[in-house]
Write a structure and sequence with these properties.
CATH topology of the largest domain: Rossmann fold
Main location: membrane
Shape: elongated
Order of helices and strands: EEEHEEHEHHHEHEHEEHEHEEHEHH
Structural class: alpha/beta
CATH class of the largest domain: Alpha Beta
Family: Belongs to the ABC transporter superfamily. Drug exporter-1 (DrugE1) (TC 3.A.1.105) family.
Protein name: ABC-2 type transport system ATP-binding protein
GO molecular function: ATP binding; ATP hydrolysis activity
Number of helices: 12
Keywords: Antibiotic resistance, ATP-binding, Cell membrane, Membrane, Nucleotide-binding, Translocase, Transport
Number of strands: 14
Bound molecules: adenosine-5'-triphosphate
Length: 349
């Protein structure tokens, strides 16, 4: 099979071989700039995404999510490592990959001065559909996303949730087998976010699409992803299903808010001595610890802190969350890693 037919039209790369992951990344590295200004964005990222599943790429700002997606969607080249999408090598066959994937960026991609239907028809035409085929596909997608009634109204006047659905529908016009979504629910209100989660699940369950989404919302990854990797500073620090990752942390988490940072350090040493308490960490005035059994250990924790005259403003006991998984692997909590990198990221935008 030739890569390009004489007309320049691509041959069909064919279906994904049975059992082969829809996305495979192995040892991807990427450094931006050189010398003193070099930024190592990826330090050897590897993962595999089963076909027909929702996969989460989770990490704080600057972790390397966008760089990974850019490489997988052929917008950037890795310095080293290999990657394939829909069974196609991203470096050797970028045009094939582009035909097999859809991409929904974080920023709106639709024309607000066009109707929803016009936007979809235009996207279909850009992908080479004939006029009648593009119109039929537009109507199919409007119906699929519950947008049929609004289809002839200006997209710029739609609600944020409807506009996001339009962006997703646009990414699906050419029937890709793999859909990349960058922060799909950023900026949506809670109801629109829940609706978008349901849509994304449906795409995988009912349509057999493989969805790779990036997010820095732990809850989103927990609720939506069949499997996920947590990326930190260009490395995969944890991988598995959300339940597998949380189950690695047996027991509960005790989190105590301490009156001052000095007392928080004192609290750390006090708690480290309480039987059943382990992995004590301190960030500013927050002390966290893993405990074998939260309900049984809490009285001893409170008594120990009280005995050391440590002032508390709040104490909570919770089942392990993905934040705890991140804390265990990255040595700092997710929120703080995100906040720490935020000012630098703002400058980049
Ligand atoms: N074009 C670029 N030139 C220089 N440095 C870059 C460039 N793009 C990204 N970086 C840096 O590479 C690192 C990884 O960035 P990347 O955008 O992949 O992270 P991210 O996890 O997607 O973050 P965010 O959630 O903020 O998009 C960061 O330190 C970032 O500042």
């Amino acid at each position: 099979m030739s890569v390009y037919a004489a007309s320049g039209v691509l041959d069909d790369p064919g279906p994904l071989p049975y059992g082969r992951p829809a996305i495979e990344a192995a040892g991807l590295t990427k450094t931006y700039g050189s010398g003193d200004k070099a930024v190592r964005a990826l330090a050897g990222i590897s993962f595999a995404v089963p076909a027909g599943s929702v996969f989460g790429l989770l990490g704080p700002n600057g972790a390397g999510k966008s760089t990974t997606v850019k490489i997988l969607t052929t917008l950037s080249r890795a310095d080293a490592g290999t990657a394939s999408v829909a069974g196609i090598d991203v470096h050797r066959r970028p045009a094939w990959v582009r035909r097999a994937i859809g991409y929904v960026s974080q920023k709106p991609a639709f024309d607000p001065m066009g109707t929803g239907r016009e936007n979809l028809v235009l996207a279909g035409r850009i992908h080479g559909l004939s006029g009648p085929s593009a119109r039929a596909r537009a109507d199919e997608l409007l119906g699929r996303f519950g947008l049929a009634e609004a289809g002839n109204r200006l997209a710029g006047k739609w609600s944020g949730g409807m506009q996001r659905k339009l962006d997703v529908a646009t990414g699906l016009v050419h029937r890709p087998s793999v859909l990349f979504m960058d922060e799909p629910t950023t900026g949506l209100d809670p109801q629109a976010r829940a609706e978008m989660w349901a849509e994304i699940s449906r795409l995988a369950r009912e349509d057999g699409l493989t969805v790779l989404l990036t997010t820095h919302y732990l809850e989103e990854a927990d609720r939506l992803a069949d499997r996920l990797v947590i990326i930190d500073r260009g490395r995969v620090v944890a991988a598995g299903t959300p339940d597998e990752l949380k189950a690695q942390l047996d027991g509960d988490t005790v989190q105590a808010e301490i009156v001052g940072a000095e007392q928080a350090e004192a609290a750390r040493s006090v708690l480290a001595g309480v039987p059943g308490v382990h992995d004590v960490s301190v960030e500013e005035t927050t002390v966290r610890a893993r405990v074998t059994n939260g309900a049984a250990t809490l009285p001893a924790v409170l008594a120990a802190l009280d005995g050391a005259r440590v002032g508390l403003t709040a104490v909570t006991v919770a089942r392990p969350s993905l934040d705890d998984v991140y804390l265990r692997h990255a040595g700092r909590s997710f929120d703080r890693a995100d906040a720490a990198s935020f000012p630098r990221q703002e400058k980049n935008r």
